[in-house]
Amino acid sequence: MTALAACGSTGGGQSDDSSSKDVTSFLNVTATSSSPAEALDQPVADLAFSVVSPDGTSVGSQVTADDGTASVQLEAGDYRIAIDTTTVPPGMALISDLTETVTMTGDGDLAVPLAFGPAPEPAVAGTSRWDYATEDGYSYDLEISVKEPVEGGVNGDNVIGSVCDFDPALDIAVPGVLRATATTADFGTSIRAAFIVQHIDGDYSGAGTPPTRDDDRVRVEQYFSSDPTCREYSSTNLWGYAAPEASSVAFGDPVAAGDTVEHRFTVIVKNYRSPNTPDGDRALLDWITIRPMAKGPGRVGEPGTFSDQKGTDLYSSSVGLTLSGRQVG
User: Which parts of the sequence are annotated with region: Disordered (predicted)?
Assistant: First the structure.
């Protein structure tokens, strides 16, 4: 508990004004979180916050205990609460309204609940679509969307950075969604999909950390029904240096015509912020793309192998969806 010394104490010859500002009381914070997975609200421990006066001066700070509570002793007056966002539980966001000032009257303690819930998903930045089919007549439409870059939070029900190393102070995360809609008339389609993360044609022109073919700056975090996985890639990942590594997903049961299945993933770019790009390297996000690949047991054209029906060159780096949401090719 942080106690602030009372100021303006009475001295000789001065009357005691009980309404003066030196009357103190406690601001008692209780932080809880709620989620669909939990039947009851859970206490939020280790949440750091400050109490700030109208002129912006911090007059007290605390960290919540294991039961989610903390107290600050304050003089009468108006204050606001500033939360250290780095201590908010992963995937959570404040749902309490902290836009109003907190008024301490000195007549008694004041309880302030801080409620947290699942963080809202970011807006979609861009979407690309492809038509996939096999030589033996099975087909599906593939859609890949990327969302606005975030410094953490969730992708669906999945916490970003749960398996890949992620430093929100330096790195950035781009949540992605892969959706496949079966289009094979009268038959169920066993859908398999794959995509690579590579850069588009042309040199990187940003001011940040220059990408190299062996920098391992890109992580792809995939969320499967069993467990999430993490794979590392270079920020180039190009054909020519070796076959580029791909991320893939197979949906177990055949999908009926018109039905859609979904797979979520997040692309994490390390060292997105640097001294030259303190607000982030947007040029790098506009240079790195996501594009689907053929997926199946054999080469393109062999039975059971899905390939793009628009004739996309598998070796091309001039098509795809950039991490900034721009469609290329």
Answer: 1-23
